[in-house]
Amino acid sequence: MHFRYARHTSDISKLEDFYATVLNLDILAGFQDHDGYNGVFLGPKGGSWHLEFTESSDVPDHTFDEEDNLVFYPEDRTAYDRILEQIQLQKIPLVPPRNPYWVAHGIMILDPDGFRVVISNDRLNS
Fold first, then answer.
1. DSSP character at residue 18
2. Domain-embedded: residue 90
3. Strands 37-43 and 49-55, bridge-based pairing
4. Does residue 62 lie within any of the structural domains?
């Protein structure tokens, strides 16, 4: 099974930059003016999942709360440390998670649309 998470946004370039730069995801493909939509696909090359962000003249109307999280599991300590370095370089503030599990097993930040993103450290070998 393959997985795609698709979300509409009002600023695709900010999301593309955030997920490519901070989380080191590959830009897999994109499209312009497909039935009034622009889009970008980000994820690991050769992976079975990816994120899709679209924008159009429609303004997104998202409803989400503190429990709606995208959770990423870096492959190793080097990848985790690289993400932490990018978070510091980009001056992205950490957000306290509501779920105590993520307090002990990761860090939380907000993407440019205000969605919560967890970078987990619970599967890393030291």
1. I
2. yes
3. antiparallel
4. no
* In contact, 70 and 22? CB cutoff 8 Å: no
Residue 40 to residue 12: CA distance in whole angstroms: 8
Residue matched to tokens 């993400």: 83
> Residue 94 maps to which CATH number?
3.10.180.10
Per-10-residue mean pLDDT for the chain, 126 residues long?
96 97 97 97 97 96 92 94 97 96 95 96 75
Neighbours of 31 (CB within 10 A): 13
Predicted TM-score (pTM) above 0.90: yes
DSSP assigned state of 114:
S
- Number of compact structural domains in the chain: 2
